[in-house]
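Posted in: Structural Biology > Protein-Ligand Complexes

Title: Requesting predicted complex, coenzyme A in pocket

I'd be grateful if someone could produce the 3D structure tokens for the following input. Sequence and ligand are given below.
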Amino acid sequence: MNQAEEWKNLLVSVEDGIAILTIHRPSKLNALDNETLDELSEAFTGCFVEEEVGVIILTGAGEKSFVAGADISMLAEQGVLDGRLNSHLGQDCMSLIEAGPKPVIAAVNGFALGGGLELALACDFRYASSNAVFGLPEVGLGIIPGYGGTQRLPRLVGYGHGLEMILTGEKIDAEEALRIGLVNRVFPPEDLLEEAKKTARKILKNGPLAVSIAKEAVRRGTEMALEDGVSLEADLFGMISSTEDMKEGMRAFLEKRKPEFRGE
Ligand code: COA
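-- Reply #1 --
Done. Output follows.
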């Protein structure tokens, strides 16, 4: 990833281990066209490999919108084959974010509709500004969510709440999103990014390999039967026990000092 690189629809900054990716298509309320999806995939891949980055925060430019959906003018042109392809293109980007080895926090600063909500769902957890609005309005456009929303939303908020949102297409506010577990916390708009950074800083104090492996254990394990999930956990526990970070973490505790993790 090159911070200085000229992205068309993204702003990228890295400071003190935190990468902030801001989707920037203000004239379209940050709607996702395929070019923006490509840029997101490229920027996330860059953040995942860049040693300097420990946590990624994803947000939208402006005060009104996180992402107002997939770009409807692009979807309006599609037929069966390119519809399927568009869905795969979006899904690939979401899966890349979800499976990445570093934590990703969505700072939802306004509309998170359709593909915007699906993008937030692919992040590890979500903080919202009090003016955020969530919804999967696709059925009202005669389509269904195609970037993983039919799968990730019910898995996160439960079948009933998920299907209610998908079948009605109705929008919910930040408080309701908090109530159903779609977001972890709600903040005044002016505090949202700083609060996300505070959490990022707490994560950054921990062993980076442990953080990464913990994410993997939860992400993969929750898709398995409990027996398989705990077995995966034991394997990963064994793996993390072979690291220098483990030795440093334990030694620092015993020596009553702060650990200095090197990610090794
Ligand atoms: N795709 C393409 N363009 C979009 C868009 C989307 N998903 N969402 C918003 N825009 C564009 C609008 O067309 C408008 O462009 P224009 O100025 O060239 O006409 C611009 O962004 C501003 O949107 P506007 O509708 O004027 O703002 P608003 O405050 O009145 O309404 C929304 C905001 C989010 C409620 C409304 O834009 C909306 O319903 N967007 C579509 C949401 C959606 O269905 N997403 C799922 C897509 S699968």
